[in-house]
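the two lines:
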Amino acid sequence: MSLLQIIVKNMLRKPVRLVLTVIPMCLAFFVFSLIIGIDNAYDVEFELDEKRRIVTINQQSIIQPLMQPAIERVRKMPQVSNATFATWFGGYFLKPDQTFSQYAIEEDTYFAVYDGIQIPNTSLPLWLEDPTAVLVTPLLAERFDWKVGDKIVLTTSIWTQKNFSNDWPFTIAGIFYAEDGTEEQSMLIKHTYLERNRLFGRGMTSFFVSRVRSDYDINNTINQLDKLFENSKNATFTSKESAFAESFRRQLGDLALMTKLVLAIAVLVVFLLTSSSMAQSLVERKRELALFSALGYSKRKISSLLVAENILVVVLAMLIATCITLVSSVLLGQILVDGPFSDIELRFWDIVQISAIAISLGATGATLPLLKLLQEDMAANLKSAI
Amino acid sequence: MKLLLNCLLLDIKSLAQRRYEVASILICSASLTLIILVFSSLRVGLSGVIETAGSDKQLILLGNGSESEVISSFSLQQVEQLKTLINANSRNSIVASELFTNIRVADAAKHEVQVVAVRGVSDDSLKLRNHFSIQSGRMFSSGRRELIVGDKLVSRFPWLGLNQKITLGSLEWTIVGVFATTETVAESEVWGEISLLQDAYNRGAIFQSIRVGVEDAANAQAIVNILNQENNRINLVAKTQRHYYAGQIDEMIQFVDIIAIPSIIILILATGFSTLQSMHTMIEARQRETAVLRAIGFSSLNLATSIYSVTILISIAGSVVGILLTLGIFLQSKAVILNHLSLSEVVFPFSITWQSALIAVLTAITIAFVGGLPPTFISLNRSIVTAIRKG
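prediction for all of em together
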């Protein structure tokens, strides 16, 4: 019998206990991977950091504006290859609860910074011609059934027109494909249109987005950019695009702590299960282990067999749980339209990480009961009845 | 009965032999109690904020379409128009227009950065706040760049206390007082004089929201109806204060629930099965011993009841540990959750109530009760002879 066979046979020896051990372990790993998956749904760092973009807002608050001319100083920085600015429009379509993101963008520079955005040729004629033209994502066009050339009105409480109206007319120029990892429903408005027609706030904008050249360090660039405006009336606060996007999506504060607590408990449950089942099997197999010892197996070999068996059980539970999470993420994605559960995502590295946790739990869980065994004189157990 | 007590005594004495199973049941039930208690305290704390946050006698008016004070705005003209309209419909009402924004603040070492709400208030605003009082320091003096902060905010972030300087607009402001009010959400805000704050932000006579205090709730509802009908002429949304805050807090509670409910359900199942496993192991390990006891006259019912009661006792002990842990860690602490509508943090106390503690303990015991049942039944049905032989 090969060693692997011994391990598997030993594992399957008490099927009832194996099942009873694996089920709660599976559940614990399920909640663990679920929370990591939900966390990923909020976490956009993965997709965005390759673009080397940084976002600058007013240091005091995200709702305080920046002055447009200040961007020229950013553009002069050797570290920055492209920079653009955008302003929140904050409007809704017909009813106050029909909201989505609208950005007034500087159309000459925006697409150089967001070079992953694709505009199909069908959208271009109107977009280039009409000052009121807007581009929308396919999902948004579908939501309100907008077609090319449609005239729509958005209402915003942020911007008042020169005629004192808060209703702004726009023309749908067509669709654009947003970059992966960015909002699925958004609209791009021409900044010049907003600028010419707004009553207040001319010359102001909400945030700058700059791209850092690949031969410069991003964090240093962030520091230097903020230093440029340190003593200006509008001091800036710059962060990586991913961190900026996350500050909106992620539920910060104590809820994050709570989810960590759940993760910790899940790990604890697995640990307890593995060490208690290990302890029990050691008691039951005392005599048998003594036999192994008598046959010439070293203590180290015996204990590695046991540890391997334990790891195998935990990894088995982990694999089942990960499969359940993957299947349920696909199912939930089809059933639910919105919310964190619709977008659960387990990445390759997460699975590697969970496997590493499983293996180390299997090993450490076996250690405590094994330590005692290693101190004992195994051969003495040959005599014992149990 | 005496036999049962004997069994129980025997079981308790022999617990040390099965420390892994005991630890497993104990820790599982402690952690389950902890997590249920923590989540329910968060929820109860948040709901407590609603109860006291808003009064039915006060209204909040926001610029059309905005659900939040952050992006709502009124011009001075609109404020005056509304004042006339409200006074015509209700005598003795107080109308206060306020500025609202938020600001990023950091402690001296810049380790902790928080976004807090800033409100520009006038004398009328203070009249509207029930039981407004200065807890320490003093009120800001008119015409000076001074601020007062809510006591909840200071209790969570002590570095926002007296004499701390904050940059608002382009100038530094000093915190001179700490205030308390029954409008609990406001206790997470920083207040200053409205006209100075408007200057600091170069806003001119622009206001974010209008608060109206009227004599009674019926009158308040009547004014809400009138104002919302006028919707087309004057751009606004009118709500009672209670309604306004309840909407915001409901959204925060949903955020808590969306994480808490699935996690708790799965953890309940996991700990339930884990108890089942521990019980099973415990009973299996003692098969022979139990069989011997049965052979010398202990009834199997007694034996099973005793091991079952021991499990439940352990899980009660676990729950108590869980409650003590929760009390130890969270009793004094304040929770913080981001209010998505005002884009600022709301601080509220963790409310650990005896009701939620009871629910947590009952859940843990039920888990032990249900989880322990199958192995107990199996052990009852085993024949004595095979059990003794099997060892």
